[in-house]
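User: I'm writing a short methods note and want a consistent example. For Glycosyl transferase family 1 domain-containing protein, I'll paste the sequence; you return only the structure tokens, no commentary, since I'll be parsing the reply automatically.
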Amino acid sequence: MKIDHRSLMLVTVIQNLQKLGYLFRIFTVGHGKARSIWESIDGDLSSLRTEKHAPIDWSTFEGVMVDSLEAKEAISSLMQEPFCSVPLIWIIQEDSLSSRLPVYEKMGLERLLSHWRSAFSRASVVVFPDFTYPMLYSQLDSGNFFVIPGSPVDVWAAESYSKTHSKDQLREINGFGKNDMIVLVVGSTIFYDDLSWDYAVAMHSIGPLLTKYARRNDAAESFEFVFLCGNSTDGYDDALQEVASRLGLPQGYIRRYGLNGDVNSVLLMADIILYGSAQEVQGFPPLLIRAMSFEIPVIAPDIPVLRKYIVDGVHGIYFSKHNPEALMNSFSLLLSNGGLSKFGQAIASSGRELARNVQALECITGYARLLENVLNFPSDVLLPGPVYQIQQGGWEWNLFQNEIELGIDLPKMDDDFSIREDTIIYTVEQELTSPNYSADNSENGTEVPVLDKLTKLDWDILREIEISEENDMLEKEEIEERMEKDVGVWDEIYRNARKSEKLKFEANERDEGELERTGQPVCIYEIYNGAGGWPFLHHGSLYRGLSLSRKAQRKSSDDVDAVGRLPLLNDTYFRNILCEMGGMFAIANRVDSVHMRPWIGFQSWRAAGRKEALLAEAEKVLEEKMRDNLRGDVIYFWGRLDMDGDVTRSNDALTFWSMCDILNGGNCRTIFQEAFREMYALPSHVEALPPMPEDGGYWSALHSWVMPTPSFLEFIMFSRMFVDSIDALHRDSSDATACFLGSSKLEKEHCYCRMLELLINVWAYHSGRKMVYINATTGFTQVQHPIEQRKGFMWAKYFDFSLLKKMDEDLAEAADDGDHPRDAWLWPMTGEVHWQGIYEREREERYRVKMDKKRKTKEKLFERMKYGYKQKSLGR
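Assistant:
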């Protein structure tokens, strides 16, 4: 939210991605002057700080881009199911954390290192703007680091600095003359403890140049050679002077400044920049960009990365590597009468224009290609345009130019190693370290929290204390056993017995949530899969959680364990392809043991995330209707299918089946009728796709509905057979790992889910159920697809309860006899297997147990009559 180079880069990238067809929703961290700029991109900005009060459903996005370390708050929720599979691109443009990593390692703060390593590993890709960053963050690398070169940081710094500083003033402060010809030698920006090999080789390469101009003592041409390298330690100066003396240069002729000082002032003082490094580098050297932005002519070796951008004789001058003569010739082109030649001034001017937008196009196209490779686009989206459609090759300077003129938010080359208290790094350090915070132990002026580490001696002392306490307890128990005890008065014995009974009752007492639901006509089960869904769940007597994963079940609640009720869901594959329908199967399996109310409802956690969950007013209306009509063949739904979206694949009006096709890879109708034909054993010439009306009414979605419990069991009976038919088509195909209903990775993982989400509509319409839409906010109800208008459209014979019951019993008989139609038959694993033969066998088993008990009783009586029964004497 700040006006700085990072905002400029991100705004430029996102605006160009929008032109390709990407849609963005922007979440902010705090407030800043860039708010108006972001509002022009997305008018409805949301604050990430309010997530605790209004949680974010990350699954509604194809991907998430996090643009800084400060936005790490979003990472925490993305590390929990069901958001772990959402692609995450984390852009790191600051090195503040990298300076802390060596401190953590030195102090043994492994918890902090592990925390950041875990956060970095969650990202699908961690993107850096420069190739030096992966080295700085190498301790956190899990194989997902990626560099997209290109950032306006150096241009921003140069333009802001030049507005507030004068070249002549800086020269006077640093002891240079106004007419001195200052030649600045630059190279790698990486710090070394000793003089780097790069600069040592550069010294020998430019040796003849230094020797030639050092011997000129005339006042008209006074040359000063300055090196910009390393840090401010004395080791660099001694090493440079040693090399200079070997070249025969006078003492003090060469001066050096460190990269951890005021780099901008050194660059601005220079007249000519000589890039002395001959190493092959991957990215455009940032010092050259900053120097060119100061409008200083550049001489550089002809290495590939520079030739890609700089035209020789236009934006700069090249010389052959390790060729002193070529360097001398190039250098002479820039000089005229003790100053810069007109040719040198022209190069400086054109170089400044080039540096202003250098690598901008590569940065924009790099992010576009990254999104193409990282994001998994579902079937119902229009794909964005190809990368080659990007035409813009510059940063959006027009949006930020006024702020640059004022010189605000100036980034510095020498980032301070201290951590402000308002940063996420400081917050994490405070949370993950002990309360013992020492201000005495510091490095580079940084306060480091000190942990009290337990030594081996501490563990030995603790063990001795535990053994001593255990021996004392045993000795005390032995003494108490040997002492004579008084039985006590009757009142005390009675009181202890009553206390024992009370504790036993409390252990078996019903859960508080179950007591609250006593007398309620309906219970709505909220289905969730993962701790990330907890903030979306409701509390109160109307709702009860339904967890699809035992690991993610809420501890302090009476949520239903779907896996415990249906072992099939313990298999990750089936849990993923069935989604919320698997939870419904679990409730229907021996339903009387968990639900004994006339009405039953379901609501996916996603409904709250998409602002389609029931609010208080709608809940009140729904409960009133349940009480007034305890038994009725009606289904109330509030999550509705979006039939009037902004984007459609054609100009034709959307219908139920066309929308289903869009949501299922274009194959909904085909797979539905094939599964329907498989389910009812219909011949190929018979129509198998139930007709759905085009009356403009609403259809149910998000598994958010309420219906009578008997109707629910009938729907589950139909759904189990239909799911089994889809699974049969899937397993009979040539590629059992493929998914007919989607192409993306996520759609393949949840293959049947989107079709099963709409199955309730087909069943309710053709089985003659009254369908009522209830507004989730106001509670307003409206009948959809009236029954009297369905005549001639309903396929009632296929949805008749007696037919479905007969089909269910036939499948149960086949499962009971072991006559499975295929391997891994799904139907018996989705619920109860029951038919008349099982009932008769169970009745016979009960009768056999009863008769066996009678026989044993008669045998005991016979023995007593034969041998008599002698009571043992009570005394002696």
